[in-house]
Amino acid sequence: xxxxxxxxxxxxxxxxxxxxxxxxxxxxxxxxxxxxxxxxxxxxxxxxxxxxxxxxxxxxxxxxxxxxxxxxxxxxxxxxxxxxxxxxxxxxxxxxxxxxxxxxxxxxxxxxxxxxxxxxxxxxxxxxxxxxxxxxxxxxxxxxxxxxxxxxxxxxxxxxxxxxxxxxxxxxxxxxxxxxxxxxxxxxxxxxxxxxxxxxxxxxxxxxxxxxxxxxxxxxxxxxxxxxxxxxxxxxxxxxxxxxxxxxxxxxxxx
Length: 255
Fold this sequence. Notes:
Layout: H1 2-33, E1 54-55, E2 64-65, E3 71-74, E4 78-81, H2 117-129, E5 133-134, H3 137-145, H4 177-181, E6 209-211, E7 218-220, H5 229-232, E8 238-240, E9 247-248, E10 251-253
Parallel strand pairs: 6-9
Antiparallel strand pairs: 1-2, 3-4, 4-10, 5-10, 6-7, 7-8
């Protein structure tokens, strides 16, 4: 009798397990069809689950992060501001004075800081107030050079008028012409329409050097007044900030 009862219990258990698996198939198929998936940190047992913030575009390449509107997904690794940081009250002709949270908007003068530790601290705080942080060297390089290792955000060959550098305003531009003819100046965010990465990051080369997160107090990207823009604007070039006179920043975020 005990053997028959035990066998019946096992049979009932297996039947229930089979029904549970069959009932789960439509849910699984619907998830696959919608391009959704669980990440390794998702707890599917309760209502408060951690969802994957990436979007599978269905195309070749990495998934995109779900970034705020003023940011761009960089290779599915980090969200980065589309434009160099600006003050909340900046305009097309003025950098403004407000020390509130950093903005990432088109067509305004970017936020210049000092090149010392106080400038770094100011940039850190401005990003923090915006719910973001300064970009790491790895994130910045990935946004500028891409996985293929571009020299500039627009390609491998220096183009004097593509980004805002010392040669951009020469009548007949060529490397170092700005040193001879002058006329170079800081410009509003997004003014150089070709100075944009494939993902939509503007002015990452030229205009202002950009602070990189870290104790070394370094900057990348070059600026409008670099004598050798061909070298200093390159994605791989890094400089101690203290040697630079035109320093700004942009913010990053991992949602």
